[in-house]
Amino acid sequence: SQLIRRDREDVAARVREAQMMGTLELMFLSPNRLGILLLGSSLWGHAQEAIALTLYLIVAVILGMNVAGADVPVALASLLLSVFAFNALGMLAASVVIVVKQGNPVSFVLGMASVLAAGVLYPTNVLPGWIQAIGQILPLTHSLELIRRSVLNGEGLGTLWGPFLALLALTVVLLPLGLWACHVAVRIAQTDGSLAEY
Fold this sequence. Notes:
- By secondary structure, the chain is mainly α.
- It has helices at residues 2-21, 24-29, 34-40, 43-62, 72-100, 105-117, 129-136, 139-152, 157-191.
- Helix 5 packs antiparallel against helix 8, helix 6 crosses helix 7 and helix 8 (139-152) packs antiparallel against helix 9 (157-191).
- The longest helix has 35 residues, at 157-191.
- The protein is globular, with a radius of gyration of 18 Å.
């Protein structure tokens, strides 16, 4: 969950950092597409977290975790899909940062909702029904279920098709929404002349 949480925060954090350093306007003047700029800005964070995840797994195996029965292709596909879903949420957060020129309120709200409703600290089935419903619209809920069950239980898509399709659907909805929100935010900031402000 740390890797996925970092993905959500990385895009917005890079935008806020560029605002503070005065390089955001220059970044958006480059000939690259906005989506490539935003997703590319988080690549180093992805690399760092992938290394950390690999080290965690190595230590877990050394300490006795049995991964012999893990469904590695499903786990990797779920992780990759999760990265895209959370980068989409990061773009939504970045769009707010571009307009309001403040910290990252969207990531704070998403982080709190994820901790409470996505099954990070406890199983979602112990929560009241309305909180479980909120958890179903959070990509982290489905991501955690997919990765836990594929790695720890060795389950494949035969039993995990429900959460996999839910995560895929959320990604398909959130990615264009995140890109659209960033385009709108940049247009607003360019129109009112505040793109270079922080």
